[in-house]
Amino acid sequence: MRLSANTLAGLPHDVARPAYSREQGFGIVHFGIGAFHRAHQAWYTDHCLRKGERDWMISGVSLRSATVHDRLLPQDGLYTLIERSNANEKMEVIGAVGEVLVAGPDRQAIINRIAAPDCRIASFTVTEKGYCRAADGSLDFDNAARGFYPIVGEALAIRMKQGLPGITLLSCDNLSGNGKQLHRLTAEWLASGNSDLAQWFEDKCTAPETMVDRIVPATTGNDLARLAARLGMGDEGAVFTEPFSQWVVEDGFANGRPSWDHFGAQLVADVRPYETAKLRMLNGAHSLLAYCGLIAGHEFVHEAIADPRLNRLAKSLMAEAMATITPGPGQNLDRYSEELLHRFANSSLNHRLEQIAMDGSQKIPQRWLETLAERQDQGLASPSILTGIACWLRHIRGDAGKIDDPMADRLANAWAEHGKSGVFDRVFAAGGLISSPWTPNAESRATVIAALDKNQI
Ligand code: CS2
Q1: R_g (Cα) of the chain, nearest Å
Q2: In this structure, which residue's CA is closest to atom 4 in ligand 1?
Q3: pLDDT tens readout for residues 16-65
Q4: What number does the ligand 1 atom closest to the CA of 36 have?
Q5: Nearest Cα to 382, choosing from 328, 296, 428, 445?
Q6: Average of per-residue pLDDT values in the chain
Q7: Residues with Cβ within 6 A of ligand 1?
Q8: Which three-class secondary structure state does DSSP give residue 6?
């Protein structure tokens, strides 16, 4: 037996489930319907629907693979969300995802969904590389032509032509100034084809900033097998996460939004301090644990944070980052760093370091390099981040296995062509391979190069 609308009633009694009618309008089209969205924004939206809000069903879009579509189609879009802490497990079935479309075969259907009067928000968790930015931050048009931009552009053109209201584009990815970046890149795309449309977009659509936070490890076959025994039925779409969840959103929606704030989302005027703390402290420490932890032979985040040497490093990286952040209202950075250490120690999540190590070229600018640049300007050294950079360079040399990064080949060539003394400059110097706000001084450069020789962390 498999989870679906017909089998919902057969679930164990302690599994919460949607009781609302799911025959209602698609108010949201979401690009990147992976585990993170299903454990985060879909949860908030599901709770709004449970309370009786209507017409906020989510049409999920996969840009590349049909896996999520194939898993959720036989389940009518239903899936279980399992919150795991060291102490217990809580389960609920989420009903907010009404369909999953795949960008190739369903291209026109996706355009029609966004162009329909029901649609009010197009949201995105397409990962850092999904925004298709060139090294100077501008839109890489060749790449963008294969991403979400043409689909969104065609749909917005229809809305303009039909006199429909604008919509909100909502980036839920770990970029600094994610709303501003999405707005600027979309505007670049539209302006290259149709200046009227670019102006309409400017006038009628918005792209608020968001900070999203929930740790969602990739689901494993083992997780699914254990869950099936517990549910008495299979669920190929299940996602496993931690109890913690945070969503800070700039209140600037073009055409309405669900009352996510009734379920814990914080609507604020300025997302920046929350976003900066999250990127530089949580994600910054995550990347450090990933590159240094893999080299030290660990597999999971909870193992790395239990290693005293890495624990000290993560704490001092957070302290380095904290010194660059002016807290927002109600934000306590000391408490935040304590909470993060506690969350990283959750051993029931089995969060693989390899998952975090992916796509480092796209992640480390906002996680480490902005902190480094600001501290260097103030005359401060950042030894923990520099240790992280050395471990990342060793990682891309292949010290801890295969590299999963859109720039993997270019990074490997940088090692092959320039060796230990030249790879640092090839990657980080002005005009180097990655998009960097940091111009390394001689001392930092020497520290990293010296650390490349070490066998230990
Ligand atoms: C992680 C994030 O994979 C990664 O790079 O650092 O996905 C992290 O788990 C989330 O941002 C937590 O909100």
Answers
A1: 22
A2: 356
A3: 999 999 999 999 999 999 999 999 999 999 999 999 999 999 999 999 99
A4: 7
A5: 445
A6: 96
A7: 174, 213-215, 283, 286, 355-356, 363
A8: coil
